[in-house]
Amino acid sequence: MLLSFFLLTLLLGCENDNRANYESLNTSNSSINSSTSIKESSKFKTQFPNTEFSNIITLDSVNKDGTLRAQTNTDFGELIVVANGKEEVGHLNAPSVAGLEGDLTFQGNYTVINIIDGKKHEVMQLKELTFIQQSDRVVNFDKVSFNDADVYFLTPQYTSGHGLNAYAIAVNKSNGEAISLKFIKNDTTTDTLNYANDQLPVNENDFLKVAPGISAGTSEENADITFYKLDLTNKYFIAE
User: Fold this and answer.
1) Mean pLDDT score of the chain, rounded to an integer?
2) Residues 197, 82, 67, CA angle at the centre, nearest 5°?
3) Cα(first)–Cα(last) distance of the chain, in Å?
4) More confident residue, 82 or 30
5) pLDDT band per the 50, 70, 90 thresholds, residue 74
6) C-alpha distances in angstroms, 2 versus 5, 6, 14, 15, 145?
7) Which residues, including other chains, have CB under 8 Å from residue 61's CB and lie 6 or more apart?
8) DSSP states of 91-127 as a string?
């Protein structure tokens, strides 16, 4: 009887020790998993949490400072757009008017640079800009020629539910100097030109002919085709 009692006590003690060891191990593993989860979830933290598309972008990686995002040849050299600091690479995590689920996104602060004879000249800064594209290829500029300048349009998104927005850079045909242009319409000045997804702006009789993007709520006046006159001296296109 005494021997049986001793064996029972020994077994209970071992069971308690094993349970304690198991609970300790679980606690340790739980701590490790929690730490790993926090590390993984905070691996990439966006610098741009309040952009127009932030709620539908999943961040995947970060490119280094100076990454080339857009480029085109001019008669005098090149126009390029490079990241001014780190560039965030992600994808759309849901379909929307901005694109298809899985489309690539590139976010950063960018510099537009005009290169003439190997020398770089800063044209403009583009802050907290989001490119949405269907591949990681370098984005091209669209060119429209006028009597005094070639105008290059940079369109960061390839589609939209309310038309595309483009930045314009004019390259003077006489000396290759590049300047950024603004747009004036109905006493309103904007940094970008809005145009219909399927209709690039064109030169018609030395005016820029633009079919604006149409969406719900667009007024009849704003839905009409608009003609802009280029004013290189004052650095703008003005609607006629």
Assistant:
1) 85
2) 110
3) 110
4) 82
5) very high
6) 5, 6, 19, 20, 106
7) 44, 88, 89
8) EESS-BTTB-TT-EEEEEEEEEEEEETTEEEEEEEEE
∠ Cα 222 171 158 (to 5°): 50
Give the span between the Cα atoms of 66 and 150, in whole angstroms: 26
Contact 58, 99 (CB under 8 A): no
Q: Backbone dihedral region of 125: left (phi > 0), alpha (psi from -120 to 50 degrees) or beta?
A: beta
Could you tell me which residues are beta bridge partners of residue 166? 193
pLDDT greater than 90 at residue 16: no
Q: In angstroms, rounded to a whole number, what is the distance separating the alpha carbons of residues 62 and 59? A: 8
- Per-residue model confidence as pLDDT tens digits over 173-187: 999 999 999 999 999
